[in-house]
Specification:
5 helices; 99 residues
Length: 99
């Protein structure tokens, strides 16, 4: 599927704000099941731009947590570590099972 600039922007926003597949498909003007198939395909442009949005969101979260850690808030450090551990587990699952 060849994406327009508008569709790329929609996908980045969808990933960043974790929009549902139903809402994202509606905004893109495509079938929800088709979108889900494209999101599952790591080679698709849809997957690429959606994940850019997700990564942007996580960057913002880490920046906020980093600021709180620098202010001495220990709960922020614990939360940051928990997120990192979860990301490592997700990475291993994806590598081993392609999920």
């Amino acid at each position: 599927m060849e994406l327009t600039d508008k569709q790329k922007t929609i996908l980045i926003s969808a990933g960043e704000f974790e929009l549902s597949p139903e809402a994202t498909a509606y905004k893109l003007g495509i079938e929800e099941n088709f979108l889900i198939d494209l999101l599952k395909d790591p080679r698709s442009q849809v997957n690429k731009y959606y994940n850019i949005g997700k990564e942007t969101n996580m960057f913002d979260v880490f920046q906020g947590l980093k600021k709180q850690v620098m202010e001495g808030k220990t709960y922020a450090a614990k939360l940051m570590e928990e997120i990192r551990k979860n990301n490592e587990v997700d990475k291993i699952i994806k590598e081993r099972f392609g999920i």
